[in-house]
Every structure is written in structure tokens, then in C-alpha cells.
Amino acid sequence: MAARKRTTMYSTGGKKLYAVRAADGTFKDIQTYERAHRADMAKKSVAEKTTAARKKSAAKKSPAKKAAKKAARKKTTAKKAPRKRAAKKAARRK
Fold this sequence. Notes:
By secondary structure, the protein is α+β, with helices and mostly antiparallel strands. It has helices spanning 33-42, 46-59, 63-76; strands spanning 6-10, 16-21, 27-32.
């Protein structure tokens, strides 16, 4: 579904309205900005859907492959020795 162009208007009470026009120019749908915005936030964008699908397919990988990948990663990362902190010198007062 293509994005619909909305006309912004205000009601007599001062609420912001979104109006969607039909091809002939008549109003097809009028909603308050608050309701329209909430509906937009509830819908997932195409980009969100593709990333979710990609994550889902990555989760379906076999456990053996995952374990092998994890083991390979462990071998490459060497543990660093903890840093030694320099002892603080007591400040001398005159």
C-alpha cells in the first residue's frame, strides 16, 4: 500500500486533523492527528519487516554451526592481563 498524502487542518475545538482525499478531491477519511499518529507508529515499515525477517532466518541456523562459530571466535580473542594501577602518592602539606 502506498503512502497516502494527508491534508492538515484544525477542528473548531483546536485539535489538529489529518484528512485523506480521494482521487476526485472529496474527503475520504478524517482523523485526529493523535489517532493517525498512533496508527502510524503501530504499523511496521518495510525496512523493519525486512530486518525482522533477516533476524528470524539467522536464528534458524543449526546449533552445530552456531557452536562452531562461537568456538572459532573464542580462539581468536586472547585475554588481556589486568592493568596494574600506579600507587597514589600522598600529597605533602607544608
